[in-house]
Amino acid sequence: MQQTLASFGVAGLPGDLGSTGFAAVDASGQAAACAVTMNGPFGAGRTATGTGVVLGATPSSQAGLASAFLTPVLAVSGGRVELAGTGAGGPKGGAAAIAAMVDVTRGRALGKRGDMRGTGSAPYDAVNMISCSEEACVALPDPGGSGASAVAYDYEAIRQ
User: Fold this and answer.
1) How many C-beta atoms surround the C-beta of residue 87 within 10 A?
2) Residue 128 has what DSSP assignment?
């Protein structure tokens, strides 16, 4: 990784790039994946006067490369979502998201947290995925301990 960064003239990255990602899949199979960054923890460290809105740091800040490592992914096969999720926080989060995508495209089921490759960089680099089969979707937080995932059910639809 250091050689790759050096080839772009980047000596190193801060530990926390102020990034995160999230995904959702609804009962009808519609999906979205989004990754965002404030270019550093707490962005610029300032709020817009009178609003409480924390302002992002400029891309020229120390963590300004954060957006280069945001990796939202969606895998669809036969009109059905198989994978939705994100890698964020740094190069390892993005790499873990791409690894999950490659696994799914090769037919490997991701049915439990341990099926994914972790970033090994908790708490900053994180990968979080939702893996769907014909029966159900499973929320898969980063195996390294970063991130959180949840599944919500429409109990009214289940009872019918």
Assistant:
1) 32
2) E
Show the tokens assigned to 21: 């990602």
Greatest Cα pair distance, the chain, in angstroms, is: 59
What is the C-alpha to C-alpha distance for residues 135 and 121, in angstroms, rounded to an integer?
32
pLDDT along the chain (160 residues), means of 10: 72 80 89 92 90 88 81 92 91 90 90 80 81 88 74 61
Q: How far apart are CA 139 and CA 120, in angstroms?
A: 19
Edge-to-edge strand ranges of the sheet holding 80-88: 71-77, 80-88, 126-132, 137-140
3-state secondary structure of 36: strand
**The whole model's pTM is what?**
0.81
Q: Which among 109, 110, 111, 129 has a CA at the least distance from the CA of 119? A: 129
Tokens of 107: 């037919």
Spell out the domains of the chain, with CATH numbers in brackets. Answer: 15-152 (3.60.20.40)
Quickly tell me which residue has 């009214």 as its tokens.
156
